[in-house]
Amino acid sequence: MTQTHEPLGPLLIGIEGLELANGEAACLAHPAVGGVVLFSRNYQDPDQLQTLTHAIRSESGRDLLITVDHEGGRVQRFRQGFTPLPPLGLLGRMYGDHQDMALDMAYRHGRVMATELLVRGVDLSFAPVLDLDRGSRVIGERSFSADPEAVGRLAGHYLAGMHDAGMKTCGKHFPGHGSVEADSHTDDVVDPRSLERIKSSDLLPFEATIDQLDAVMMAHVCYPATDRLPAGYSRRWIGGILRAEMGFSGVVISDDLVMQAALIAGKLSDRLRAALEAGCDVALVCDPAAARELLASLDGAPSDATESLDRLRGRSQHTMEEIETVGEWRHWRQSIKDLEHSQWA
User: Residue ranges per domain, the chain?
Assistant: First the structure.
């Protein structure tokens, strides 16, 4: 199918399996859809992934943005045939002993991660986590560290690695999910701290890297001392603090609207409307059945997200075979593999 130049919508949706199922191409052609979020259920090996990413674009007839959570550690969606990426927390532990080595490895981690995804047709990994490791059971080792200064420095090198590979960047979860224990996937999450306390801790890594971030993903966390609404539905957090005070001019992305902590805004179509009206440019609906139900309820696209999505595209200029001929690349990848046997693992 020839790709069209029709506008792209603000929804990034999940699909069922290793190839497009019956009816999924039609869903991807819906004007509200702008891209896809891939998971482990969509992955078998690198060749299958490349076939799938090609099919997503060719069978929908649209140049959709293809995304994934591929941070490392327990959140690495593609494993067989990909470099095993250590959790970012390992780099934080290394930073406590050898700062320069840890910063170098953070760069390599981001560069290797991004390169391997781009050559298989994936535009963007929602990375890195900028949350602090301060007691959240869903964040933990996904964070570089409990120390805001360490997170900011390590993330800066990681982001540079992504950019040098040709991938855009996405810091998450704004304004910080790491300092409250509950998991927004399964619980309503409330962080009672004052805005001043959050600014003096959780916001610092975002401030340190704001000029390197192409996108920011919002937290489904409520900070009632600042706003009664969760951050992803909050005009104060998005428009007032992130954009006006911090000067962020990139793309704002909602976390998955099917998560428990997102349900406060009502039915799924109401959640989408609330996120977009609050200032999100793009919204995730990762469950394929929920996405189909939502699309059936929409009359056209809620907004034109083409410009925002175009800002997040990343395509490799080389094949994996060409990249493999570069000795420095092979050294970087091996050094990342070796981290799982290091003293910090």
Answer: 1-68+287-314
Q: Cα–Cα distance between 37 and 74 in angstroms, integer?
A: 17
The answer to whether the beta carbons of residues 53 and 37 sit under 8 Å apart is: no
Q: How far is CA 148 from CA 29, 107, 128, 254, in A?
A: 42, 18, 14, 23
Q: Say how far apart CA 256 and CA 139 lie, in whole Å.
A: 16
The catalytic residue among 63, 69, 202, 255 is 255
pLDDT in tens, 55-114: 999 999 999 999 999 999 999 999 999 999 999 999 999 999 999 999 999 999 999 999
224-273 pLDDT per residue, tens: 999 999 999 999 999 999 999 999 999 999 999 998 878 888 899 999 99
- Kind and range of the H or E run holding 170: strand 170-174
Provide the whole-model pTM: 0.96
The secondary structure of 218-238 as a DSSP string is EP--B-TTT-SSBGGG-HIII
Are 176 and 146 spatial neighbours (Cβ–Cβ below 8 Å)? no
DSSP-assigned states of every residue in 93-129: HHHHH-HHHHHHHHHHHHHHHHHHHHTTT--EE---B
Mark whether 191 is an active-site residue.
no
In sequence order, what are the residues at sequence separation of 6 or more whose Cβ sits closer than 8 angstroms to the Cβ of residue 29? 60, 61, 62
Residue 157 falls in the annotated catalytic set: no
List the catalytic residue out of 45, 104, 183, 185: 185
Within its chain, how far is the Cα of 96 from the centroid?
Answer: 26
